Amino acid sequence: MTTAKTILKIDASARKAGSMTREMTDTLVARLLASDADARVLTRDVSAGLPIVDEAWIAANFTDPAERTPEQKLKLALSDTLVAELKSADVVVIAAPLYNFGIPSSLKAWVDMIARARETFRYTEAGPEGLLKGKKAYLVVATGGTPVNSPVDFATPYLKHVLAFVGITDVQVVAADLYSTDVEAKRAAARAAVEQAVSSAA
């Protein structure tokens, strides 16, 4: 018996209407559902912002779970939820608009909340080891004027590195870049890239 997949979709664009990444990730998820109608979709919109890592969070994170105070458990509650969502997912779809050559601060805060020793990675004598192996990830990267994977695209390689760090190495990038030059043509190209990415992974 095959268990239906769980798809985790991360939205990060500050724009609700007219967002290329939101449009393309919705298209991608719809395409995934077309091949697995029983799949479950979890959506996490981080665009409104997440708490940043502060001294109290660090202290709670590095305290043995059995010894954490109620206040420390509360401090880590959102991070625990985000980690649980990521652990439960078979497929991760991340919408990554390029803001000033990098990812939005809200998406960076999500990374900081899920990159946790003993939860999503561990340190070994051979170096860090990701604990979230066996997952598939899609990065939908949208830019107005910066080519994806160019020397000034610091978002795509960063997110690929972060995902690999926690064990997710099967990553496909869907580029929705340079759309400020011709929105409709770039939208069509991005939709074609979505189709190709899903088809090649099937």
UniProtKB/TrEMBL annotation:
<dbReference type="Pfam" id="PF02525">
    <property type="entry name" value="Flavodoxin_2"/>
</dbReference>
<dbReference type="InterPro" id="IPR003680">
    <property type="entry name" value="Flavodoxin_fold"/>
</dbReference>
<dbReference type="GO" id="GO:0016655">
    <property type="term" value="F:oxidoreductase activity, acting on NAD(P)H, quinone or similar compound as acceptor"/>
</dbReference>
<comment type="similarity">
    <text>Belongs to the azoreductase type 1 family.</text>
</comment>
<feature type="domain" description="Flavodoxin-like fold">
    <location>
        <begin position="5"/>
        <end position="196"/>
    </location>
</feature>
<feature type="binding site">
    <location>
        <position position="13"/>
    </location>
    <ligand>
        <name>FMN</name>
    </ligand>
</feature>
<keyword id="KW-0288">FMN</keyword>
<dbReference type="GO" id="GO:0016652">
    <property type="term" value="F:oxidoreductase activity, acting on NAD(P)H as acceptor"/>
</dbReference>
<dbReference type="InterPro" id="IPR023048">
    <property type="entry name" value="NADH:quinone_OxRdtase_FMN_depd"/>
</dbReference>
<dbReference type="GO" id="GO:0010181">
    <property type="term" value="F:FMN binding"/>
</dbReference>
<comment type="function">
    <text>Also exhibits azoreductase activity. Catalyzes the reductive cleavage of the azo bond in aromatic azo compounds to the corresponding amines.</text>
</comment>
<dbReference type="InterPro" id="IPR029039">
    <property type="entry name" value="Flavoprotein-like_sf"/>
</dbReference>
<comment type="function">
    <text>Quinone reductase that provides resistance to thiol-specific stress caused by electrophilic quinones.</text>
</comment>
<dbReference type="GO" id="GO:0009055">
    <property type="term" value="F:electron transfer activity"/>
</dbReference>
<keyword id="KW-0560">Oxidoreductase</keyword>
<dbReference type="InterPro" id="IPR050104">
    <property type="entry name" value="FMN-dep_NADH:Q_OxRdtase_AzoR1"/>
</dbReference>
<protein>
    <recommendedName>
        <fullName>FMN dependent NADH:quinone oxidoreductase</fullName>
        <ecNumber>1.6.5.-</ecNumber>
        <ecNumber>1.7.1.17</ecNumber>
    </recommendedName>
</protein>
<keyword id="KW-0520">NAD</keyword>
<keyword id="KW-0285">Flavoprotein</keyword>
<comment type="subunit">
    <text>Homodimer.</text>
</comment>
